[in-house]
Amino acid sequence: MKEKIISKASEMFLKLGFKSITMDDIAGEMCISKKTIYKYFCNKEILIEESTATIHKEIHQIIDAVILKNFNAIQENFEIRKLFKEMFKSSDTSPIYQLKKHYPEIYEKVMSREINECNTIFKQNIEKGIQQGLYRENVTIASYIRFYYLLVFSIKETTSSEKEAQKLELEILEYHTRALATPNGIIELEKHILKPNV
Fold first, then answer.
1. Distant-in-sequence, close-in-space partners of 106: CB < 8 Å, separation ≥ 6
2. What contacts 148, CB < 8 A, 6 or more positions away?
3. pTM confidence score
4. What does DSSP assign to residue 161?
5. pLDDT for residue 198 is more than 70
């Protein structure tokens, strides 16, 4: 039952927001009593913490699955973006923005988890792109990881509209890729930028 509550709460938080969803809403949606939820979670903050941990795990399983498909480095980033777009398509308000605004302590925990995972993924992607001749060899990888991370998360933290955040994220991905790309990398990037619904 605990897992079912976390799963339903995660889905509702992502769709309608961490602030607006109440324990009553979750209980009503699951056709259980609020008392049942409180048996497992003594307050909403604990449920949000467990939900964000579950969402984090799911996101990184999705990313790992994309990486295993062995796309080239540029396509890999676009495929990951496509999956995120799908995952958050029903959200009106950016989940990260809400978390920072309404639950800053939980937000800090989430971000400290994310920074390590994201830095590893970005580093592997840049190294892969260099090996494939899509990214330039003479780049300071640590700096590019930092630039990309700061750009992506500053958008997530400061843009309340999920739709607007996704539009800006696409522009950041293009900016990041152009900064790293070789002439062959630019050709590969242009292929993805020109696709409809990118």
1. 45, 48, 49, 52, 99
2. 122, 172, 176
3. 0.84
4. B
5. no
